[in-house]
Design goal:
Number of helices: 23
Number of domains: 4
Number of strands: 11
Distance between the termini: 84 Å
Structural class: alpha+beta
Radius of gyration: 28 Å
Strand order of the largest sheet: 6-5-8-9
Largest sheet: 4 strands, mixed
Helix content: 40-55%
Strand content: 5-15%
Shape: flat
Length: 470
């Protein structure tokens, strides 16, 4: 008996329910994409319908399937109806332009390529994963996992790499690179292959480390070229764009995507009032005709009737999960944004950046009782319209440091002073990280050299030697 008990294993597996999966997917969507997702669900699920005008919601109590299937509904009947509009709301989009046309431009170019549906889906996902500067900074394994979770699409690293190689042929040159070296080499590939370009290609491909450190003597010796030839090659490299995604923003401003703010903040009688505009999302409810169909089918014993009952049962479950997921999305978004407003109360009063307190995802997770991953999904790709401008929710998050007087300040404030100090430096003798530490200390900000180095790198500012101008 003892040996048998020792062989027993206890395994705990956490499996997400269909409702949880649906909620996670909806939570990630910004307002416009949510509108599209709701309309798609209405088209694909005949059990869902919209409520028009002042029509009263139909009773959902008779939609319980336990009587006919022997199963309990996991969602109470009162949750089968979701109200997404007030009576006096006009169906208008409060939109503003953001520079997201870079990705649209790539998707348009993809439309001219001949490929299978699967290849196109993979390529579209890769395009959507590119950063605003045109780089792909996610590895193929992570992309593969995300595709399987979000799209239900199985794609291996080799298929993703093939899609990326196609994207790297698009304009602007250098797009889809995984690092700076690859970005510059992709651009040289499209230039006329004259001697200076060929030398530049060799430098970037085989002596990139020496080039970035400005060890020009080593490059001349190893390539056996003259100083003039090196200078011509460097001029070719300096003409390249290290951030190809930035090229499209100004050229395609007229095609910029219209984004609907996910939150509205207004000041009424001196108090902030938060709301979630839902101008485009219709009111959803269960279609009673299909519930009646289930009742009739359940009372018959033919094979066709049972298949019809199974189909309707599946659609009813899907409709209930979708409606409940919409409700949970709305509550989660509102509670998260309310916590951010409370945390940054002084800032939202006037929009004064100096009053923006250090705040990380964990702070809001602790206030709301939600997971950090949930807060991250809420913050991602969401915007709020305030009385002093429109901002991405990511803008309000930053780490913090203590001043000499013991006051906690946002790292954004430190970075602003760091940028100002570097802009005002003597370019013939740039400030080292140690000298930047001294500058910050003089202004009352006590920071370590490694902290200055980290912030400088986050701001894409090179070390002092590389900022030197002749």
């Amino acid at each position: 008996m003892l040996s048998q008990s020792l062989q027993q294993k206890l395994q705990l597996k956490q499996k997400l329910s269909p409702l949880q999966i649906q909620t996670i997917k909806l939570l990630e969507l910004p307002a416009l994409e949510l509108d599209q997702r709701v309309r798609k669900e209405l088209e694909e699920n005949p059990v869902l319908e919209t409520k028009e005008g002042d029509e009263e919601p139909e009773s959902a109590g008779e939609l319980s399937l336990s009587e006919y299937t022997g199963q309990d509904d996991s969602i109470p009947s009162y949750k089968l109806y979701v109200n997404n509009q007030s009576r006096d709301m006009k169906k208008e989009f409060p939109t503003f332009s953001v520079r997201e046309s870079f990705h649209q431009n790539l998707e348009a170019q993809l439309g001219f390529r001949s490929m299978t549906d699967k290849e196109r889906e993979i390529a579209l996902f890769v395009i959507g994963s590119l950063d605003d500067d045109g780089y792909l900074r996610r590895d193929f394994e992570t992309l593969s996992d995300d595709m399987a979770f979000r799209l239900g699409l199985e794609a291996g690293p080799r298929e993703i790499e093939q899609a990326l190689s196609i994207i790297q042929e698009f304009d602007p040159p250098g797009v889809g690179a995984r690092d700076l070296q690859e970005c510059l080499l992709l651009q040289l590939r499209n230039k006329e292959q004259k001697p200076a370009v060929e030398t530049a290609h060799t430098i970037l491909e085989k002596h990139f480390a020496e080039f970035t450190k400005k060890h020009y003597d080593k490059i001349i010796a190893r390539l056996g070229i003259t100083e003039d030839e090196l200078k011509e090659a460097i001029e070719e490299i300096l003409r390249l764009n290290p951030k190809p995604g930035g090229n499209v923003e100004d050229s395609y401003t007229d095609r910029a995507q219209q984004v609907v703010p996910d939150f509205m903040l207004e000041i009424k009688e001196g108090e902030p009032v938060l709301s979630l505009p839902r101008f485009s999302v219709p009111e959803l409810r269960i279609n009673k005709r299909y519930a009646d169909m289930l009742l009739k089918a359940a009372g018959q014993s033919t094979r066709e009737s049972k298949e019809a009952a199974t189909f309707v049962k599946q659609k009813l479950d899907s409709a209930k999960w979708f409606i409940e997921a919409l409700k949970q999305r709305q509550n989660t978004l509102f509670n998260t944004m309310k916590a951010i407003l409370d945390f940054q109360k002084d800032y939202f009063a006037e929009g004064d950046e100096t009053k923006l307190k250090p705040m990380v995802l964990k702070n809001i997770a602790e206030i709301t009782g939600l997971d950090i991953s949930t807060i991250s999904r809420v913050v991602n790709s969401k915007y709020i319209q305030t009385h002093f401008g429109i901002y991405s929710l990511k803008y309000f998050f930053s780490e913090g440091l203590m001043t000499e007087s013991g006051e906690e300040v946002s790292t954004r404030e430190i970075k602003n002073i760091l940028v100002q100090s570097i802009e005002q430096e003597d370019k013939h003798k740039p400030l080292t990280d140690e000298e930047l530490v001294a500058c910050l200390n003089e202004k009352g900000y006590k920071v370590a050299r490694r902290t200055v180095a980290k912030y400088r790198e986050q701001l894409n500012i090179p070390i002092a030697r590389l900022r030197k101008q002749i």
